[in-house]
Amino acid sequence: MTTRERFLKIMEGDPTVDHGPALEWAMWWDKTIEHWEKEGMPSGMSGEQVAKYFGLDSITQFWFPHYTADCPQPKSKYVGPGIVRNEEDYRYYVKLLKEYSRYACKKAGNYS
User: Fold this and answer.
1) pLDDT at residue 85 is higher than 70
2) Is residue 26 over pLDDT 80?
3) Residue 71: pLDDT above 70?
4) Higher confidence at residue 25 or residue 49?
5) What integer pLDDT is reported at residue 79 of this predicted model?
6) Using CA atoms, how far apart are residues 68 and 8, in angstroms rounded to an integer?
7) Are 44 and 55 in contact (CB under 8 A)?
8) Under a CB-based contact definition with an 8 Å cutoff, are residues 10 and 20 in contact?
9) Burial of 41 from C-beta contacts in 10 A (0-12 / 13-18 / 19+)
10) Residue 64 CB neighbours (<10 A)
11) CA neighbours closer than 13 Å in the CB half-sphere of residue 9
12) Using CA atoms, how far apart are residues 97 and 20, in angstroms rounded to an integer?
């Protein structure tokens, strides 16, 4: 199963997904990379190559506006409950995330 197939199955609530995504969204510190290279990891690899070396799923991060006019605002700028208050909100935002991810993938040329 590809990372994309796994992500879409999870977003759709498909119980046949093989496992949750294995990824690292906050890349590693330079000292960590140096340490791993001393332990035998090939040197000079990109972040994507390091992730593949450790068997992680690929990840592409897209930034898009998430506070639109139709999106409820948090009660506080820094702390407090999130914008998802109930099952109805959850289903609404899952639908929006699917639409945004399809748009972003099409724009990046990574969507079939």
Assistant:
1) yes
2) no
3) no
4) 49
5) 57
6) 24
7) no
8) yes
9) middle
10) 11
11) 14
12) 17
> How far, in Å, CA of 48 to CA of 57, rounded?
9
Share of the chain above pLDDT 70, in %: 71
**Average pLDDT of the segment spanning 75-86:** 68
The DSSP secondary structure of the chain, one letter per residue, reads: --HHHHHHHHHTT-TT--S-----SSPPPHHHHHHHHHTTPPSS--HHHHHHHTTPPP----------TTSPPPSSSSSS--S--SHHHHHHHHHHHHHHHHHHHHHHT---
Q: How many residues does the chain have?
A: 112
The tokens 């899952």 sit on which residue? 94
Gap between the Cα atoms of 92 and 71, Å rounded: 10
- Residue 97 backbone dihedrals phi, psi, to 5 degrees: -60, -40
Distance CA 106, CA 93 (A): 20
